[in-house]
Write a structure and sequence with these properties.
By secondary structure, this protein is of the alpha+beta class. The protein has three helices and four strands, in the order βαββαβα. β2 and β3 form a beta hairpin. The longest helix has 14 residues.
Length: 93
């Protein structure tokens, strides 16, 4: 299953967030494959796209960073999956 992970932090944690990222690489725990990660320019915001079937691993990862970031973890679908659902919906109308 795919997830979009958005994070935001206050400027007051900028240094500690940077230090932790440099120490750990921000890698997800075992069981989560990070497809990509992007950082906002001039802010402490960003998002990642990850894949896992282990929702507990995703929750652990969010919890590991909860002291620094506010995180939103959203289930996601691909264009192909969304298109299939839209076609099925249209056929029922």
């Amino acid at each position: 299953m795919l997830f979009i992970v958005n994070w935001t932090a206050l400027p007051s944690v900028n240094r500690s967030a940077a230090e932790r990222f440099l120490q750990t690489g921000g890698a997800p725990p075992e069981g989560i494959k990070m497809i990509g990660r992007w950082h906002g320019i001039g802010s402490i915001r960003g998002f990642a796209v990850c894949e896992t079937d282990d929702i507990e691993a995703m929750a652990r990862w969010a919890h590991e960073w909860a002291d620094i970031f506010s995180m939103d973890v959203l289930p996601a679908v691909t264009d192909e999956q969304a298109g299939k659902m839209l076609m099925e919906f249209a056929q029922r109308q």
